[in-house]
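User: I'm new to structure prediction. If I give you an amino acid sequence, what do you actually give back? Let's try with this one:
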Amino acid sequence: MDKETYEKKMQAQLDEWKAEIEKLQAQARNASADMQAKYEEEIRELRKKRDEMEAEYQKMQSASVEAWQDIKDATDKAWDSMADAMKSAMNRFK
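Assistant: Good question. You get back a string of structure tokens that encode the predicted 3D arrangement of the chain. For your 94 residues, that looks like this:
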């Protein structure tokens, strides 16, 4: 996959995660008071991870075509961590 394709894929995933976090936020508002606090903490963590992914994305955008592969490896690890966190949260919010 080339740099441009990878960046487009990453941007689409970041947008999707943002929308999913907003859905979870809406669900949290409808939860009982004790569950709401738990959900809010989890949502804060998801937002933090998403912000970290956004930072990786920005690094990648500014990297040269030659250097982006090195950045991609770190980004892939962060991406996997975020994906796992989202899956876990989605399952708990069901």
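You can read the tokens as a compact description of the fold. Here is one thing that stands out. The two ends are 35 Å apart (CA to CA).
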